Amino acid sequence: MPENAADYLKEVFLFSLAPISVNFLNFVETILHMKSRSLSNLLLALTAALFLSLPAAHSQETGAQETATRQTDPKPYKEVQRFKAYHATQGVAVDKDAFYAITNAHITKFNLQGDSLMTWHEPNKDRIRHINAGIVLKNKLYCAHSNYPLYPMASSIEIFDTKDLSHIGTVSFGIDTGSCTWILPGKRCWYVFFAHYDKKIDKEGKQWDNANQAQLVMFDKKWRKMQAWTLPADLLKEIAPSSLSGGVMIDGIFYCTGHDAAKCYKLRIPERGTILEWIGEVDVPFHGQAIALGPDGDLWGISRKERAVIRARR
Known about the structure:
By secondary structure, the protein is α+β, with helices and mostly antiparallel strands. The protein is about 20% helix and about 40% strand. The chain has five helices and 21 strands. Strands 1-18-17-16-15 form a five-stranded mixed beta sheet, with no helix packed on it. The longest helix has 16 residues, at about 35-50. It is globular and about 45 Å long.
């Protein structure tokens, strides 16, 4: 064996496997200078075989971990109730006493037995054009609103009193981040999702905005922007040309719906970086659109085709 074999081996290892401990390489060097040439050769061969196999093993392990972190939840949501609701074409909101069918410029309140109680309507499209989702907090219905399908995109949050559906407030974002499609309260903050789409808007084929500009934005309680995150590329590809239409939060995880698929995408805020982590999905009995989480943990959605509100449980 050449006298400089240990030095050569160390250089090869440091070049190809930088994370390997230099202390361990020194141990290998000691072995190589043992008096027993045969033992030294054997240990050299075994050591080289072991470490040269590590990159592939590590790669396989990493791939397995990535696959394991994005799996379909084995316990899907299943339909337990269905209610006819003519205005259930965009989404639904719910509280302990009622649910609210939402479509563009109409909101209809129902009791939990499915009886229609009242309807709010905005006749002026210059004021309210596209209400997409809602969430009830302390007798107030907060609705995500935008001027979709107009461009440039402008958004607001419209607030209603749940007792009589009177309009009591507005938070206007103006022309800013995109089309507001859903909102959620956080710990001393708000999460607001702004959608972008891959869609033509004129006869000349001019593109609207790219779907990859969609963002989940965190605001403080005074509606000052704090942070924002984009969607992962593989999720954008799956939901294209649309975006995320609805979202709820369960145990710190965002359960989000697209436009058509009968599933919720499970997303979480990353420890570092700007891209939300897509960690899994769960099957649901409604095809996209805005959803709501009931006080009892039931998940609510809609069927646009049947103009129905669906209550689901697992």
